Amino acid sequence: MSKLFFLKGAFPNEYFTQTADYIASVQEPDGAIPWFKGGYTDPWDHVESAMGLSICGMYREAEKAYDWLKETQLDNGSWWNAYKNGRIEDNTRTESNFVAYVATGVWHHFLITQNFTFLKRLWPVIDAAIEFVISLQTKYGEICWAVDSEKGVREDALITGCSSIYKSLECAINLAAVMNRKRPHWVLARNRLGHTLRNHPERFDRTWESKSRYSMDWFYPVLTGVITGPAARSRLNAKWDTFVREDLGCHCVSDEPWVTIAESCELTMALLAAGDHKRASRLFGWLHTYREKDGSYWTGYVYPKDELWPIEKPTWTAGAVLLAADALANATPASQLFTRVLLIDTAENVKSISYA
């Protein structure tokens, strides 16, 4: 199958259950979800994969993934950059957007399951992780990208990373409301971060080459709700021809003839957030030529050479596919998590909350 088209409310369960099964087949006994069998696990992609499991009703496996984060969380609320075979693989740094993403995953799972017992178990993990992340916010509003294990705080910031944190703070604020915990400083941190992302581009990429050649810097502010409405549509239109190859997908970087499936799925959701359902559906329809019979998806495709590259089928790519499919089909109560901004005030409002 080279193309797949969606009608709202129509989720091809059998087709995508295979994709969730693939993620589960890679999950390790302790709950970690590595990129692929024998690969390493990083906290951000681990959560992306776990969200795919939740979408397809594999709640036990998803909760096992979040419990792995609970068991491996450091005393300061963070996680190391990578783990492998039950051990730390890379302890050179902790990355702020990696740490924050657990809030997005837990909120996503709670929206689908309404499992308050699970939420109570994971709340201390969220609380500690978000406190770590906002401790890295500068007086200008951006959040530093990492803490080096030897050099300390790395005082520069990434547009993509901070945009991801912005969505994670939305989710964390909602989790706090459900738990009836007051965290006004989280709201302030999110407001300050959003202002800086929208109005102060000079606060990003100050000590390295600009990341503007990466497609994520283009669409992540839309995907995560930093930029909405007409401004979101204008932003996506401005660089569509730069980053999108017709019938193939979204480039990872503008100057390489390489389209990647995960970025294409995230752009699908960004288009939905901007109200462009037609292009979102068309883009997502191109991606299933990169699917294998076991439901997995290849990382990307280099079109001048007509070859898949790298020869990897990451679990997080599968997770991104499921998130985009859910967003298009509106199948679960979390389907619009990345296409709408929603903040709740009190626990009393939780019963009526759904992104769908």
Summarize the model shown.
The chain is built from 13 helices and ten strands. It has helices at residues 13-26, 43-55, 59-72, 96-113, 116-134, 159-178, 184-199, 215-223, 229-238, 240-243, 261-273, 277-285, 315-329, and strands at 82-84, 87-90, 93-95, 146-148, 152-154, 244-245, 249-251, 258-260, 300-302, 307-308.
Question: Can you walk me through this structure?
Answer:
The chain is α+β, with helices and mostly antiparallel strands and 356 residues long. It has one domain (13-352): Glycosyltransferase, CATH 1.50.10.10. It is built from 13 helices and ten strands. The chain has helices at 13-26, 43-55, 59-72, 96-113, 116-134, 159-178, 184-199, 215-223, 229-238, 240-243, 261-273, 277-285, 315-329, and strands at residues 82-84, 87-90, 93-95, 146-148, 152-154, 244-245, 249-251, 258-260, 300-302, 307-308. The strands form three sheets. The protein has a five-stranded antiparallel sheet with strand order 6-7-8-9-10. The longest helix is centred in the middle third of the chain and has 20 residues, at 159-178. The protein is globular, with a radius of gyration of 19 Å.
